[in-house]
Amino acid sequence: MNIHIKFFLVIVLSVVMLVTPGNVRADDCSLGRMADGVYPLRDEDIVMVSEYVNIKVKSGYAECVFEFKNTGKAREVLMGFPAEMEGDEEEETRLKVEEFKAFQDGVEIPVKLEKGVAPENEKALGLPAYKSWYTFTVKFKAGETVKIKNTYRFHPTVFSTGDVQIGYILKTGALWKGHIGKARVVFDMEGIEPYMIISIYPSTLRFEGDNLVWEQSDVEPFYDLYVVYNESLANKSFLENLDESERKKLEDRKALFDTVKQKASGMKKEELLELYEQAIASKDLVLAKYIASRLPAGAIKQHPPEIEGVELEKRPEGYSVNILVSDRDGDPILCRVKITRNDGGREVVEFEGQDYASNVSGDFKKRFTFDAKRLKKGEKYHLSITAEDSMGNRDYRTFDIVPGGELVAAYLSENPEPLPTKSTSALVFSIAAAVILTVLIMGRTRKIAG
Questions:
Q1: Which terminus of the chain is more exposed, N or C, with fewer CB under 10 A?
Q2: What region does 390 belong to: left with phi over 0, alpha with psi -120 to 50, or beta?
Q3: What is the CATH number of the domain that holds 80?
Q4: CB 307 within 8 A of CB 411
Q5: How many domains is the chain partitioned into structurally?
Q6: pLDDT tens digits, residue range 171-208?
Q7: How many angstroms separate the CA atoms of 254 and 104, rounded?
């Protein structure tokens, strides 16, 4: 069988890419309380041993089962689940969780709806703003493990194009002690055909049948999950209103999904791999993941993100560092930056920060921008950059810069700074090849090779 994929990017749907405010499903987290409300905070005693989440996409219903272990003394823990995100009046309905219930070891426990306030370290926690929380108190004996179940209803985000966005916030789970032992989130698509799915994030989501599943072990998530679909793709009148070329793209894409679904069992591994590579080349991540679900485990090689370009931009208030990260698997998630200078043999940190990608452009690239206002013209600085995907694969670059002056040196490091990894994937470095970075200094673009 010889099937070829053409460029199937659906450009007629004007997808609003995976913005956080549409997402109101989340892990439980520990809360603190002030006079005017509650706020999320880190807990140094309670470990989330496991979480199993099932989200019924069309029904707007979710069930979450968490297992927590107390590694400290006997205590009561105020737990919370985000009830409502900050949003304008038009968004209020869709940003709410409703009919929330909590159970401890099978017994329903009292729940309150309380006002949310911003913690002092809100930026460091990396969470969106919540107007209110469902709160409940859980009693732990020393060393005890308890099972918490939450059930609730929600409203998906629906755009004027017909696109529907569903998501699940994982980052609240990172506030518990250590890593989450096991985590599995299932998006039960309830009959929504795979070809109707427009985008997914991150690329570690996979198909099980027609459902989407995210599953990892020993994880401390710094990203969230999103799925965007559009059932209008099955609507005859919707298709008839498109111009002929766009209608054909959609029909051809659907036909390819149908072919994979019906004939994959009779196709050779090499044929499916070829289809997968063509889907990746077309930047159709959903189709690529659907094909991958028909391949044996381990057949698809994971790739690290790649730091493609670095730009030092002069602004009225100082400098900013702009970094372009790409990922062949459509999975650039995190970028870390550190800028230092040498002061008589002593390292002085001028800037250190990290940023997360809440979405990825259609070409599998993400631009990160960091404000580094303290940099001075003519001063020599050392810049190190780490890009990471959701599987823990990384790219690392480090070089010297002089704002307003010449580039001093650039190289690809063979020994990156140690960072915790949650993946068995090897850290890949292209040592043999020259590394081309682009640095913009004082309005001039310079190419540098390592």
A1: N
A2: alpha
A3: 2.60.40.3680
A4: no
A5: 2
A6: 777 788 888 899 999 999 999 999 999 999 888 999 99
A7: 45
Identify the pLDDT of residue 425. 28
Q: In whole angstroms, how large is the CA radius of gyration of the chain? A: 24
Tens digit of each residue's pLDDT (9 = 90 or more) over 378-411: 889 999 999 999 888 999 998 888 887 544 444 3
Tokens of 295: 């391949």
Domain that holds residue 38: 20-231
CB atoms within 10 A of CB 182: 15
- The amino acid occupying position 366 is K
CB burial string 397-433: b at 16+ within 10 A, e below:
bbbebbbeeebeebebeeebeeeeebbebeeebeeee
* Host H or E run for residue 296: none
Residues 79 and 207 in one domain: yes
Which DSSP string corresponds to 108-119?
EE--EEEEB---
Sequence-distant (6+) residues with CB within 8 A of 332 are 305, 325, 326, 357, 360, 364, 365, 366, 387, 389
The phi, psi pair for 174, rounded to 5°, reads -75, -5
- Please report where in the chains the tokens 């469902």 appear, as a residue: 134
Q: Report the CATH number at residue 338.
A: 2.60.40.10
Answer whether 250's CB lies under 8 Å from 164's CB. no
The SS3 of residue 443 is coil
**Beta strands 180-188 and 306-315: pairing type?**
unpaired
Query: Closest Cα partner for 179 from 426, 424, 421, 425?
Result: 421
Residue numbers of the chain with a pLDDT score lower than 50: 1-24, 88-93, 124, 406-450
Q: Measuring CA to CA, which residue among 321, 301, 302 is closest to residue 311?
A: 321
- How many residues in the chain? 450
Q: Measuring CA to CA, which residue among 103, 94, 102, 116 is closest to residue 39?
A: 116
